[in-house]
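Hi all, a correction to my earlier message: I attached the wrong file for Putative MFS transporter. Here's the right sequence:
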Amino acid sequence: MSTTPVAIDDLPLSKFHVRMTVYTTGGFFIDGYILGIISIALAVWGPQVGLSSLWEGLIGASALIGIFLGSLIFGPIIDRVGRQMMYVTDLMLFIIASVIQLFVVEPWQLFVLRLVMGIAIGIDYAIGPSLLSEMLPRRYRGTLLACLNATYTLGFVVAFVVGFALRSALGSGSWRWMLVSSVVPAVVILLLRLGSPESPRWLAAHGQHAKAQEVLRKHFGDNVILGEEPAGRQRTRIAELFNRRWRRRTIFASVFWLCQVMPYFALFTLLPTVLKSLGLSNEFTGGLALNGFQLAGGIVGVVVMNMLSRRTFVIWSFVILAISLGLLGFIPHPTSILVIIAFAVFAFVVSAAGNLESVYPAEMFPTEMRATGVGFAAAMSRVGAAIGTFLLPLGLSSLGTQPTMLIGSAVLVVGLIVSIALAPDTRDLTLTEASTIGPRIHRSARTRSK
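and the right structure:
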Protein backbone atom coordinates (compact mmCIF):
# COMPACT_ATOMS: atom_id res chain seq x y z
CA MET A 1 0.00 0.00 0.00
CA SER A 2 1.33 3.43 -0.94
CA THR A 3 2.29 5.80 1.87
CA THR A 4 2.66 8.87 -0.37
CA PRO A 5 0.01 11.45 0.63
CA VAL A 6 -2.73 11.86 -1.97
CA ALA A 7 -5.28 14.68 -1.85
CA ILE A 8 -8.94 13.66 -1.99
CA ASP A 9 -9.31 15.81 -5.13
CA ASP A 10 -6.74 13.68 -6.98
CA LEU A 11 -7.96 10.18 -6.12
CA PRO A 12 -8.92 7.62 -8.75
CA LEU A 13 -12.58 6.67 -8.96
CA SER A 14 -13.50 4.06 -6.34
CA LYS A 15 -16.47 1.87 -5.45
CA PHE A 16 -17.20 4.22 -2.55
CA HIS A 17 -17.51 7.18 -4.96
CA VAL A 18 -19.93 5.18 -7.10
CA ARG A 19 -22.01 4.12 -4.08
CA MET A 20 -22.30 7.66 -2.77
CA THR A 21 -23.32 8.83 -6.23
CA VAL A 22 -26.05 6.18 -6.38
CA TYR A 23 -27.33 7.01 -2.88
CA THR A 24 -27.42 10.73 -3.66
CA THR A 25 -28.92 10.49 -7.15
CA GLY A 26 -31.77 8.51 -5.60
CA GLY A 27 -33.11 11.67 -4.02
CA PHE A 28 -33.20 13.39 -7.39
CA PHE A 29 -34.91 10.34 -8.93
CA ILE A 30 -37.66 10.72 -6.32
CA ASP A 31 -37.97 14.42 -7.10
CA GLY A 32 -38.41 13.69 -10.79
CA TYR A 33 -40.86 10.94 -10.00
CA ILE A 34 -43.24 13.00 -7.83
CA LEU A 35 -43.15 15.94 -10.24
CA GLY A 36 -43.74 13.65 -13.22
CA ILE A 37 -46.53 11.57 -11.70
CA ILE A 38 -48.68 14.55 -10.73
CA SER A 39 -49.42 15.51 -14.35
CA ILE A 40 -50.99 12.08 -15.05
CA ALA A 41 -52.76 11.94 -11.67
CA LEU A 42 -54.36 15.34 -12.20
CA ALA A 43 -55.44 14.36 -15.72
CA VAL A 44 -57.39 11.45 -14.14
CA TRP A 45 -58.63 13.08 -10.92
CA GLY A 46 -59.30 16.58 -12.24
CA PRO A 47 -62.32 15.76 -14.44
CA GLN A 48 -63.83 13.59 -11.68
CA VAL A 49 -64.01 16.45 -9.18
CA GLY A 50 -64.27 19.36 -11.61
CA LEU A 51 -60.85 20.67 -10.60
CA SER A 52 -60.54 24.34 -11.52
CA SER A 53 -57.55 25.84 -13.33
CA LEU A 54 -56.66 27.58 -10.06
CA TRP A 55 -56.49 24.34 -8.08
CA GLU A 56 -54.77 22.53 -10.93
CA GLY A 57 -52.07 25.18 -10.91
CA LEU A 58 -51.79 25.21 -7.11
CA ILE A 59 -51.46 21.44 -6.80
CA GLY A 60 -49.02 21.30 -9.70
CA ALA A 61 -46.91 23.98 -8.00
CA SER A 62 -47.26 22.70 -4.40
CA ALA A 63 -44.20 20.43 -4.39
CA LEU A 64 -42.18 23.20 -6.02
CA ILE A 65 -43.22 25.61 -3.27
CA GLY A 66 -42.17 22.98 -0.74
CA ILE A 67 -38.79 22.56 -2.41
CA PHE A 68 -38.33 26.33 -2.14
CA LEU A 69 -39.05 26.26 1.59
CA GLY A 70 -36.97 23.16 2.29
CA SER A 71 -33.93 24.38 0.35
CA LEU A 72 -34.03 27.92 1.71
CA ILE A 73 -34.68 27.13 5.37
CA PHE A 74 -32.56 24.02 5.75
CA GLY A 75 -29.51 25.03 3.68
CA PRO A 76 -27.99 27.07 6.54
CA ILE A 77 -29.04 24.40 9.06
CA ILE A 78 -27.22 21.71 7.07
CA ASP A 79 -24.09 23.87 6.98
CA ARG A 80 -24.37 24.22 10.75
CA VAL A 81 -25.21 20.66 11.87
CA GLY A 82 -23.66 18.61 9.06
CA ARG A 83 -24.83 16.61 6.07
CA GLN A 84 -25.26 13.06 7.30
CA MET A 85 -28.20 13.36 9.73
CA MET A 86 -30.49 15.21 7.33
CA TYR A 87 -29.37 12.91 4.51
CA VAL A 88 -31.54 10.21 6.12
CA THR A 89 -34.29 12.02 8.03
CA ASP A 90 -35.56 14.00 5.02
CA LEU A 91 -36.56 10.75 3.31
CA MET A 92 -38.47 9.62 6.41
CA LEU A 93 -40.58 12.79 6.22
CA PHE A 94 -41.15 12.21 2.51
CA ILE A 95 -42.33 8.62 3.01
CA ILE A 96 -44.86 9.54 5.70
CA ALA A 97 -46.43 12.31 3.61
CA SER A 98 -46.43 10.12 0.51
CA VAL A 99 -48.41 7.33 2.22
CA ILE A 100 -51.04 9.76 3.53
CA GLN A 101 -51.84 10.75 -0.09
CA LEU A 102 -53.80 7.50 -0.31
CA PHE A 103 -56.51 9.06 1.86
CA VAL A 104 -56.92 12.39 0.06
CA VAL A 105 -60.51 13.52 -0.68
CA GLU A 106 -60.16 17.30 -1.11
CA PRO A 107 -57.86 19.41 -3.32
CA TRP A 108 -56.45 21.33 -0.33
CA GLN A 109 -55.36 18.07 1.32
CA LEU A 110 -53.34 17.05 -1.72
CA PHE A 111 -51.85 20.54 -1.86
CA VAL A 112 -50.67 20.33 1.76
CA LEU A 113 -49.23 16.82 1.46
CA ARG A 114 -47.30 17.61 -1.69
CA LEU A 115 -46.06 20.79 -0.04
CA VAL A 116 -44.59 18.65 2.78
CA MET A 117 -43.09 16.21 0.27
CA GLY A 118 -41.57 19.15 -1.55
CA ILE A 119 -39.98 20.39 1.69
CA ALA A 120 -38.33 16.99 2.15
CA ILE A 121 -37.03 17.07 -1.41
CA GLY A 122 -35.83 20.65 -0.92
CA ILE A 123 -33.74 19.49 2.03
CA ASP A 124 -32.26 16.82 -0.22
CA TYR A 125 -31.48 19.44 -2.87
CA ALA A 126 -29.34 21.31 -0.37
CA ILE A 127 -27.65 18.15 0.97
CA GLY A 128 -27.10 16.06 -2.16
CA PRO A 129 -24.81 18.19 -4.34
CA SER A 130 -23.02 19.56 -1.25
CA LEU A 131 -22.18 16.17 0.23
CA LEU A 132 -21.34 14.49 -3.06
CA SER A 133 -19.14 17.31 -4.35
CA GLU A 134 -17.17 17.17 -1.09
CA MET A 135 -16.42 13.48 -1.63
CA LEU A 136 -15.51 13.40 -5.33
CA PRO A 137 -12.15 13.81 -7.15
CA ARG A 138 -12.04 16.81 -9.48
CA ARG A 139 -11.54 14.63 -12.56
CA TYR A 140 -14.92 12.97 -12.06
CA ARG A 141 -16.75 15.68 -10.13
CA GLY A 142 -18.58 17.25 -13.07
CA THR A 143 -19.64 13.94 -14.60
CA LEU A 144 -20.88 12.36 -11.38
CA LEU A 145 -22.62 15.50 -10.11
CA ALA A 146 -24.32 15.72 -13.50
CA CYS A 147 -25.80 12.29 -12.80
CA LEU A 148 -28.00 13.93 -10.16
CA ASN A 149 -30.05 15.86 -12.68
CA ALA A 150 -29.92 13.04 -15.24
CA THR A 151 -31.43 10.73 -12.63
CA TYR A 152 -34.11 13.32 -11.93
CA THR A 153 -34.98 13.06 -15.63
CA LEU A 154 -35.09 9.28 -15.38
CA GLY A 155 -37.49 9.56 -12.45
CA PHE A 156 -39.70 11.93 -14.42
CA VAL A 157 -39.84 9.56 -17.41
CA VAL A 158 -40.45 6.48 -15.24
CA ALA A 159 -43.31 8.30 -13.52
CA PHE A 160 -44.84 9.14 -16.89
CA VAL A 161 -44.81 5.47 -17.96
CA VAL A 162 -46.01 4.19 -14.55
CA GLY A 163 -48.80 6.76 -14.49
CA PHE A 164 -50.22 5.78 -17.87
CA ALA A 165 -49.83 2.08 -17.04
CA LEU A 166 -51.80 2.52 -13.81
CA ARG A 167 -54.44 4.58 -15.60
CA SER A 168 -54.92 1.81 -18.16
CA ALA A 169 -55.05 -0.91 -15.48
CA LEU A 170 -57.09 0.77 -12.72
CA GLY A 171 -59.13 3.46 -14.48
CA SER A 172 -60.73 6.26 -12.47
CA GLY A 173 -59.25 5.20 -9.12
CA SER A 174 -55.71 4.97 -10.43
CA TRP A 175 -54.69 8.49 -9.36
CA ARG A 176 -54.39 7.49 -5.69
CA TRP A 177 -51.99 4.66 -6.50
CA MET A 178 -50.01 6.88 -8.84
CA LEU A 179 -49.37 9.31 -6.01
CA VAL A 180 -48.56 6.74 -3.31
CA SER A 181 -46.25 4.81 -5.65
CA SER A 182 -43.45 7.27 -4.80
CA VAL A 183 -43.06 5.37 -1.50
CA VAL A 184 -41.30 2.52 -3.30
CA PRO A 185 -38.20 4.38 -4.54
CA ALA A 186 -38.09 6.45 -1.34
CA VAL A 187 -37.89 3.38 0.91
CA VAL A 188 -35.19 1.83 -1.27
CA ILE A 189 -33.03 4.98 -1.15
CA LEU A 190 -33.56 5.41 2.58
CA LEU A 191 -32.28 1.89 3.26
CA LEU A 192 -29.25 2.46 1.04
CA ARG A 193 -28.33 5.71 2.79
CA LEU A 194 -28.30 4.25 6.30
CA GLY A 195 -24.72 4.29 7.59
CA SER A 196 -23.43 6.89 5.11
CA PRO A 197 -20.50 8.94 6.51
CA GLU A 198 -20.31 12.63 7.30
CA SER A 199 -18.43 14.83 4.84
CA PRO A 200 -14.74 14.98 5.84
CA ARG A 201 -14.55 18.50 4.42
CA TRP A 202 -17.39 19.66 6.65
CA LEU A 203 -15.77 18.02 9.67
CA ALA A 204 -12.42 19.70 8.95
CA ALA A 205 -14.05 23.08 8.29
CA HIS A 206 -15.68 22.83 11.72
CA GLY A 207 -12.46 21.91 13.52
CA GLN A 208 -13.17 18.18 13.83
CA HIS A 209 -9.92 17.11 12.19
CA ALA A 210 -9.61 13.74 13.92
CA LYS A 211 -13.09 12.68 12.77
CA ALA A 212 -12.36 13.96 9.27
CA GLN A 213 -9.19 11.89 9.11
CA GLU A 214 -11.05 8.83 10.36
CA VAL A 215 -13.60 9.16 7.52
CA LEU A 216 -10.75 9.52 5.02
CA ARG A 217 -8.93 6.50 6.42
CA LYS A 218 -12.03 4.28 6.49
CA HIS A 219 -13.39 5.10 3.06
CA PHE A 220 -10.38 6.25 1.02
CA GLY A 221 -7.16 4.97 2.59
CA ASP A 222 -4.51 5.78 5.23
CA ASN A 223 -2.53 8.04 2.89
CA VAL A 224 -5.43 10.25 1.74
CA ILE A 225 -5.54 13.87 2.89
CA LEU A 226 -7.99 16.70 2.32
CA GLY A 227 -5.39 19.11 1.03
CA GLU A 228 -5.89 22.78 1.74
CA GLU A 229 -9.27 23.35 3.35
CA PRO A 230 -9.85 26.85 4.77
CA ALA A 231 -11.21 26.94 8.30
CA GLY A 232 -14.92 27.61 8.33
CA ARG A 233 -17.36 29.31 10.65
CA GLN A 234 -19.81 27.53 12.89
CA ARG A 235 -22.74 29.57 11.54
CA THR A 236 -23.56 30.78 8.04
CA ARG A 237 -26.38 33.20 7.27
CA ILE A 238 -28.14 33.66 3.94
CA ALA A 239 -27.19 37.34 4.01
CA GLU A 240 -23.53 36.37 3.55
CA LEU A 241 -24.37 35.09 0.08
CA PHE A 242 -24.87 38.71 -0.94
CA ASN A 243 -21.67 40.22 0.41
CA ARG A 244 -19.21 41.68 -2.07
CA ARG A 245 -17.32 38.42 -2.54
CA TRP A 246 -20.21 36.06 -3.22
CA ARG A 247 -23.11 38.06 -4.63
CA ARG A 248 -22.16 37.63 -8.31
CA ARG A 249 -22.07 33.87 -7.87
CA THR A 250 -25.27 33.85 -5.85
CA ILE A 251 -27.09 35.89 -8.49
CA PHE A 252 -25.76 33.77 -11.34
CA ALA A 253 -26.47 30.41 -9.67
CA SER A 254 -30.01 31.49 -8.79
CA VAL A 255 -30.95 33.16 -12.08
CA PHE A 256 -29.53 30.59 -14.50
CA TRP A 257 -31.24 27.80 -12.55
CA LEU A 258 -34.54 29.70 -12.34
CA CYS A 259 -34.55 30.54 -16.05
CA GLN A 260 -33.88 26.92 -16.99
CA VAL A 261 -36.61 25.40 -14.87
CA MET A 262 -39.39 27.99 -15.08
CA PRO A 263 -40.50 27.13 -18.63
CA TYR A 264 -39.45 23.50 -18.22
CA PHE A 265 -41.64 22.73 -15.20
CA ALA A 266 -44.53 24.75 -16.56
CA LEU A 267 -44.54 22.76 -19.79
CA PHE A 268 -43.71 19.29 -18.54
CA THR A 269 -45.73 19.25 -15.31
CA LEU A 270 -48.85 19.86 -17.40
CA LEU A 271 -47.58 18.20 -20.59
CA PRO A 272 -50.84 16.49 -21.67
CA THR A 273 -52.68 19.84 -21.41
CA VAL A 274 -49.97 21.67 -23.36
CA LEU A 275 -49.86 19.09 -26.15
CA LYS A 276 -53.63 19.22 -26.55
CA SER A 277 -53.51 23.03 -26.77
CA LEU A 278 -51.01 22.69 -29.61
CA GLY A 279 -53.28 20.33 -31.55
CA LEU A 280 -51.85 16.90 -30.64
CA SER A 281 -54.69 14.51 -29.88
CA ASN A 282 -52.62 11.54 -28.61
CA GLU A 283 -51.03 13.01 -25.51
CA PHE A 284 -49.54 9.69 -24.34
CA THR A 285 -47.61 8.99 -27.54
CA GLY A 286 -46.46 12.60 -27.85
CA GLY A 287 -45.59 12.81 -24.17
CA LEU A 288 -43.71 9.52 -24.17
CA ALA A 289 -41.68 10.58 -27.23
CA LEU A 290 -40.77 13.92 -25.63
CA ASN A 291 -39.82 12.24 -22.38
CA GLY A 292 -37.60 9.93 -24.42
CA PHE A 293 -35.79 12.97 -25.82
CA GLN A 294 -35.58 14.36 -22.31
CA LEU A 295 -33.94 11.17 -21.03
CA ALA A 296 -31.52 11.09 -23.98
CA GLY A 297 -30.58 14.70 -23.30
CA GLY A 298 -29.86 13.93 -19.67
CA ILE A 299 -27.51 11.11 -20.66
CA VAL A 300 -25.72 13.21 -23.28
CA GLY A 301 -25.36 16.02 -20.76
CA VAL A 302 -23.49 13.71 -18.39
CA VAL A 303 -21.17 12.58 -21.18
CA VAL A 304 -20.26 16.06 -22.40
CA MET A 305 -20.12 17.75 -18.98
CA ASN A 306 -16.32 17.62 -18.79
CA MET A 307 -15.81 18.07 -22.54
CA LEU A 308 -17.16 21.63 -22.55
CA SER A 309 -16.38 24.51 -20.27
CA ARG A 310 -19.24 25.17 -17.86
CA ARG A 311 -19.59 28.71 -19.27
CA THR A 312 -19.85 27.56 -22.89
CA PHE A 313 -22.36 24.89 -21.98
CA VAL A 314 -24.74 27.21 -20.13
CA ILE A 315 -24.63 30.06 -22.68
CA TRP A 316 -25.27 28.01 -25.82
CA SER A 317 -27.96 25.92 -24.19
CA PHE A 318 -29.96 29.09 -23.48
CA VAL A 319 -29.58 30.16 -27.11
CA ILE A 320 -31.04 26.89 -28.42
CA LEU A 321 -33.82 26.73 -25.83
CA ALA A 322 -34.99 30.29 -26.51
CA ILE A 323 -35.16 29.59 -30.25
CA SER A 324 -37.09 26.33 -29.84
CA LEU A 325 -39.88 27.93 -27.79
CA GLY A 326 -39.75 31.14 -29.81
CA LEU A 327 -40.65 29.24 -32.97
CA LEU A 328 -43.88 27.99 -31.39
CA GLY A 329 -44.68 31.54 -30.34
CA PHE A 330 -43.99 33.29 -33.63
CA ILE A 331 -45.43 30.74 -36.08
CA PRO A 332 -49.25 30.73 -36.12
CA HIS A 333 -50.94 27.31 -36.25
CA PRO A 334 -47.74 25.21 -36.28
CA THR A 335 -48.00 21.74 -37.79
CA SER A 336 -47.83 18.68 -35.58
CA ILE A 337 -44.39 17.88 -36.97
CA LEU A 338 -43.06 21.34 -36.07
CA VAL A 339 -44.54 21.09 -32.57
CA ILE A 340 -42.89 17.72 -31.98
CA ILE A 341 -39.53 18.88 -33.38
CA ALA A 342 -39.51 22.11 -31.34
CA PHE A 343 -40.50 20.32 -28.15
CA ALA A 344 -38.05 17.48 -28.83
CA VAL A 345 -35.18 19.96 -29.19
CA PHE A 346 -36.34 21.78 -26.06
CA ALA A 347 -36.66 18.55 -24.06
CA PHE A 348 -33.25 17.27 -25.18
CA VAL A 349 -31.32 20.49 -24.56
CA VAL A 350 -33.03 21.53 -21.32
CA SER A 351 -32.34 18.09 -19.88
CA ALA A 352 -28.69 18.09 -21.00
CA ALA A 353 -28.06 21.63 -19.72
CA GLY A 354 -30.08 20.94 -16.59
CA ASN A 355 -27.19 18.78 -15.40
CA LEU A 356 -25.35 22.04 -14.72
CA GLU A 357 -27.85 22.71 -11.94
CA SER A 358 -26.33 19.98 -9.80
CA VAL A 359 -22.74 20.86 -10.76
CA TYR A 360 -22.32 24.64 -10.93
CA PRO A 361 -23.73 25.80 -7.55
CA ALA A 362 -21.89 23.10 -5.57
CA GLU A 363 -18.59 24.20 -7.14
CA MET A 364 -19.04 27.93 -6.56
CA PHE A 365 -19.32 28.09 -2.76
CA PRO A 366 -16.90 27.04 0.01
CA THR A 367 -17.58 24.18 2.43
CA GLU A 368 -18.88 26.30 5.31
CA MET A 369 -21.57 27.86 3.10
CA ARG A 370 -22.00 25.29 0.33
CA ALA A 371 -25.38 23.92 1.42
CA THR A 372 -26.57 27.48 2.07
CA GLY A 373 -25.54 28.58 -1.43
CA VAL A 374 -26.88 25.48 -3.15
CA GLY A 375 -30.07 25.61 -1.10
CA PHE A 376 -30.66 29.28 -1.89
CA ALA A 377 -30.14 28.77 -5.63
CA ALA A 378 -32.44 25.74 -5.57
CA ALA A 379 -35.06 27.73 -3.66
CA MET A 380 -34.97 30.57 -6.15
CA SER A 381 -35.27 28.12 -9.03
CA ARG A 382 -38.38 26.64 -7.45
CA VAL A 383 -39.92 30.08 -7.11
CA GLY A 384 -39.69 30.33 -10.89
CA ALA A 385 -40.87 26.76 -11.39
CA ALA A 386 -43.85 27.25 -9.09
CA ILE A 387 -44.83 30.54 -10.74
CA GLY A 388 -44.55 28.99 -14.19
CA THR A 389 -46.55 25.90 -13.24
CA PHE A 390 -49.24 27.97 -11.53
CA LEU A 391 -49.58 30.49 -14.37
CA LEU A 392 -49.38 28.11 -17.34
CA PRO A 393 -52.98 26.83 -17.28
CA LEU A 394 -54.20 30.40 -16.67
CA GLY A 395 -52.03 31.68 -19.53
CA LEU A 396 -53.22 29.03 -21.96
CA SER A 397 -56.87 29.78 -21.16
CA SER A 398 -56.62 33.59 -21.11
CA LEU A 399 -53.73 34.53 -23.43
CA GLY A 400 -53.58 31.56 -25.79
CA THR A 401 -50.78 29.19 -26.72
CA GLN A 402 -48.59 31.52 -28.82
CA PRO A 403 -48.19 34.33 -26.26
CA THR A 404 -47.53 31.74 -23.56
CA MET A 405 -44.70 30.20 -25.61
CA LEU A 406 -43.22 33.67 -26.22
CA ILE A 407 -43.20 34.39 -22.49
CA GLY A 408 -41.29 31.15 -21.93
CA SER A 409 -38.79 32.14 -24.61
CA ALA A 410 -38.32 35.57 -23.00
CA VAL A 411 -37.45 33.93 -19.67
CA LEU A 412 -34.75 31.92 -21.43
CA VAL A 413 -33.31 35.08 -23.00
CA VAL A 414 -32.97 36.56 -19.51
CA GLY A 415 -30.99 33.46 -18.51
CA LEU A 416 -28.76 33.92 -21.54
CA ILE A 417 -27.99 37.55 -20.70
CA VAL A 418 -27.17 36.78 -17.07
CA SER A 419 -24.95 33.85 -18.07
CA ILE A 420 -22.97 35.95 -20.53
CA ALA A 421 -22.45 38.59 -17.83
CA LEU A 422 -21.73 36.41 -14.80
CA ALA A 423 -20.99 32.76 -15.59
CA PRO A 424 -17.60 31.59 -14.26
CA ASP A 425 -15.77 28.45 -15.34
CA THR A 426 -15.04 25.94 -12.59
CA ARG A 427 -14.03 22.94 -14.66
CA ASP A 428 -10.66 21.23 -13.84
CA LEU A 429 -10.19 23.07 -10.53
CA THR A 430 -10.04 21.46 -7.13
CA LEU A 431 -13.16 22.09 -5.09
CA THR A 432 -11.27 24.51 -2.84
CA GLU A 433 -9.90 26.42 -5.85
CA ALA A 434 -13.27 26.53 -7.56
CA SER A 435 -14.99 27.91 -4.48
CA THR A 436 -12.39 30.37 -3.17
CA ILE A 437 -10.44 31.74 -6.14
CA GLY A 438 -12.69 34.77 -6.47
CA PRO A 439 -15.94 35.96 -8.05
CA ARG A 440 -14.70 35.06 -11.54
CA ILE A 441 -12.54 32.13 -12.55
CA HIS A 442 -10.36 32.74 -15.58
CA ARG A 443 -8.74 30.43 -18.06
CA SER A 444 -5.33 31.16 -16.56
CA ALA A 445 -6.48 29.79 -13.23
CA ARG A 446 -7.69 26.60 -14.85
CA THR A 447 -4.40 26.20 -16.66
CA ARG A 448 -2.42 26.54 -13.43
CA SER A 449 -4.58 23.93 -11.74
CA LYS A 450 -3.84 21.20 -14.29
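Sorry for the mix-up. The mean pLDDT is 82.
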